[in-house]
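SEVERITY: medium
COMPONENT: batch folding queue
REPORTER: lab tech (J.R.)

DESCRIPTION
The queue accepted two submissions in a row. Attaching both inputs and their returned C-alpha cells so the on-call engineer can compare them side by side.

ATTACHMENT 1
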Amino acid sequence: QVRIVESGGDLAQPGGSLSLSCVVSDSMFSRLTMEWYRQTPGNERELVATIFNVGSTTYADSAKGRFTISRDNAVNTVYLHMNNLKPEDTARYYCNRVPPLPWGQGTQVTVSS
C-alpha cells in the first residue's frame, strides 16, 4: 500500500522560513507529478505548488517568489521550502501525487508572532 508522510510543520514568525518534507512509498516516484496543497478549517484544499517528473514547477500566485518545491528521487521525497512566511500561510499542508492517493495526515504550519 502506497503511503504519504508529511513532516516539518512548526510555529514560525512572520518573515521566517520553514521546510516541509513528504516521503512517498511508491516505487514509481520518479515518474510522478507531485503537488503540495494546504487547507484551513472550513475551506477546501488549495493547490500551492506542483513539480513534474522532469523537474519543472508551477506555483499558486500566493506562493510565487516565496516558496520552492523540489524533489529527491533517490529518497522518494518532495520538499516545500517556504521563505518570508506570512500569517495567511497558516494552514495544514499536504502533499499528493497525480493522480491522487488517499490523503496523508498533513503537517501543521502556523505563522504568528
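ATTACHMENT 2
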Amino acid sequence: QVQLVESGGGLVQAGGSLRLSCAASGRTFSRHTMGWFRQAPGKEREFVASTGSGWGGGRILYADSVKGRFTISRDNAKNTLYLQMNSLKPDDTAVYYCAAAPRQYSSVPSSLVSSYDYWGQGTQVTVSS
C-alpha cells in the first residue's frame, strides 16, 4: 500500500512556473513506476508525465502538450516525486494528481490511467492569462 500527498499547487500567471511535490509513504517508493496526471473541469483525467523505477534505469515519458516545459523527477531518498512546470499556459489549469503503479522494479513508464492503483488527493493549479 502506498499513500500519496501532493503539494505545491496555486495560482500563477501565464509564463510562470510552479513545482509540484508528491510525498509517498512506505519503503517501496523507489521500486514503483510513478506518474502525474491532471483533470480539468468537465474533462477526463489525462496523462502528463511518468517515470519508471530507478532499477535498471528509469525511463521518462511526457505528454506532447507538456514536452519541453515540464520535468518529472524523483528523489528516492526522500520518497518524493516532483513535477517542475515552466512556461505555464491557461490550458494547464487543472487538478494535478500523482499516482503509483502496483508493479515494481520496472524501468518502463506508463501513460495509462489503468496502470496505476494508488492516487493522491490532487492539488489545484490555476494559470491566469
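NOTES FROM REPORTER
The two ends are 40 Å apart (CA to CA).
No errors were logged for either attachment.
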